[in-house]
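Hi, here's the filled form for the chain we discussed.

Project: internal
Contact: R.S.
Residues: 336
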Amino acid sequence: MKTLLLTALLTTTAWHAQAADHSHHNHADHAAHHHDAAEPYYPKHVMGTHTHNPDEWMFSYRYMRMEMKGLQAGNDKISNQQAYNAGYMVAPLKMTSDMHMFGAMKGLTSDFTLMAMASYIKKDMTLRNQAGVTFATSSEGMGDTKISLIDNLTRYGFNKWTTMVTLSLPTGKTDQEANTPMGANTRLPYPMQLGSGTYDITPAVTYQCNCKGFDYGAQAYATFRINDNEEDYRLGNQFGFKAWVGKNFTDSLAAGATFNWTTQNNLSGEDDNLNPNMVVTADKRNTGYDLASLTLDVAYKPAVLNGLELVSSYEEPIYQDVNGIQMHRQRTFSLG
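And the returned structure, exactly as it came back:
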């Protein structure tokens, strides 16, 4: 509960800044972004939903915390002892990931907007071995950097659609190490690394509309890994779908809900510095999953802040089915 309260407090520090005092967004229906009750709602945690006017800038800071606890096989929760019985010497107890994201968007033309996002990540994991010894590991540093191009498709007459292509640059390290009971400078397992180590391409398409006073939207996307990383593996390709409904209730308050579906394929290749029999998270067979979740978000833009927007989001899994044995995802707090 203390962690929950602390994280909720941290979310209030998120800010969403626009460089111009009277800047206007081009949304899927291309209504001006005045942030009044008539403005279309879109969830701030979903990228690629809108474009900007030529030479218009927008800057953002976003904080996100993900929490995981316990183990599951398939869609059933299991105990650490069951992981030991499966042949692993160490099993994780819990994990947190804290990410700080810094974004910038610039309207290039009336059709295209460029977006860039850099991140700083801190991961912490608590584990226990078969002898009952509990220990902790951590990793910290820059994550992967993403550059996106968003197209509003108005020149083709598709006024409710946007497309986006994102290139992920491997600026996050994949060779993080820590001191553990097994030895000094031990290579950390795949989930504790800070990036994919590969160049990744993510195309996405978004549709938005309004019906009876509520705004609806949906987005489909896929992430493809272009190459193996320097540790001779690549994360699995990812396929996702999001659908949302929301409303701007006043000129300063908006809220909505989003359904998220993600399918992550298995990791291919292998890091030879990892012993797959040592810990559950070092075995590449324990990668890949299907995940469904619900996200609730609230955006508040008081007039006195003149261009700053405070956004808080909460995501809760409603279905998880994993390959092998993996950690159970609990919740994600998101800011934007």
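Let me know if anything looks off before we file it.
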